[in-house]
Structures are given as structure tokens and as C-alpha cells.
TrEMBL record:
This is TRAP transporter small permease protein. It is a multi-pass membrane protein. The keyword Aminoacyl-tRNA synthetase does not apply. It comes from the Bacteria. Residues 30-118 form the Tripartite ATP-independent periplasmic transporters DctQ component domain. InterPro entries: DctQ, TRAP_DctQ. Its main location: membrane. Keywords: Cell inner membrane, Cell membrane, Membrane, Transmembrane, Transmembrane helix, Transport. The complex comprises the extracytoplasmic solute receptor protein and the two transmembrane proteins. The chain crosses the membrane at residues 18-37, 49-70, 91-113, 164-185.
Amino acid sequence: MPRVILGYIRAIDAMNYFIGRFAMYLLFVLVGVLLWSSVSKTLFTSSHWTLETAQFVMVAYYVLGGPYSLQLGSNVRMDLFYGGWSVRQRAWFDAFTVLFLMFYLGVLLYGGINSFAYSLGRPYNATTYEFLSELLSTLFSQGFDAAGDKLGFMERSNSPWRPYLWPVKSLLCIGVFLMLLQSLAEFFRDIGRIRGEAL
């Protein structure tokens, strides 16, 4: 394998390992939020923020832990035939099926970016690319206040707490992008196994 591909695999694996290990500890945050929700419902007036915060933490745990799970090979597989195949046969099958995963993740990322732009108040007459590129160029050239003026009516949840939705939608886009990068690394790793190289 070329050194560029080996470097890519090592860099993506290291990044997703670090992020995945961080995401594992979000379960403790989730337990704390749900524990507070139970205590506040029993002893005090119930907190409106606990259920949605628990959902947001679970989204972060799931989408940031996905690439790490793929890296470790701990994703769910149908093992009817796969378990009896040789390493090379598995690599051929994995290299073929990961292309479908990358296509799915690409479509999911496209929809996620559009949803993220909508949550920031993208006007109906602007495309997502135009809106986000103008927002970022304004942010870097004129600062936060000028970029804030470009934002439209920002999407909020319909719950009584009414949090903004752009943080969780941006986190979803980041997680899907990381999963796409890890899928590409797995594809390269499978090609290496087909060629008889251990990566």
C-alpha cells in the first residue's frame, strides 16, 4: 500500500479512537441527567430540560461512537455464511459492502447538512452551499456579530424548554462525516487484506 493511504488509515483510526473513547463516557452524563430527572420528579417540580438533554446526549454517544465501533469491528453482522469464510473472502465481501455504506452515509450527510442549514435560518431563496459559505466567510472576515446578522430565524424544539436545534444537528453532521472517513479507511484496509498485506 502507498504510504499516503497508510498514513490516512493511521490518522483516521487515531482520531476516531480518541473521539470514541470520549463518547463512551457520555453514558455517565446520560445516567446523571436521567437520575436528576427521577429525583426532580419525585422531590421537586419536574425539570423540562432533562428529557431533551438525555436525547441530545444519546445522539452524541451514538454518532460519535459509531466510527469507533466500526474501527473495532463490533458492528452487528449476519454471520450465517461470513463466519466460515477465509480472511480474503471476508475482505472481498467487506470491500464490496462498504461501498453501499459510504453511499448511504453520503446521502445522510447531504440531508444532515441541509437540515443543519435550515436550523440556522437558511432563507428559502438561497441554497445550502451559498448560505453556509457566506456565513463562514462573514464569520472569518468580520467576526461573530456580523455572522449573527446573517442568521435567520433559528429552529427551536417544540417542547416547553425550547432549545436551539443547531448544536445537535451539527453534531450529527460531524458524526456522519467521521463515520464516512472511517468507512473509507476500512475500505483501504480490506483492499490491503485482499492483497495479503496486514494493515
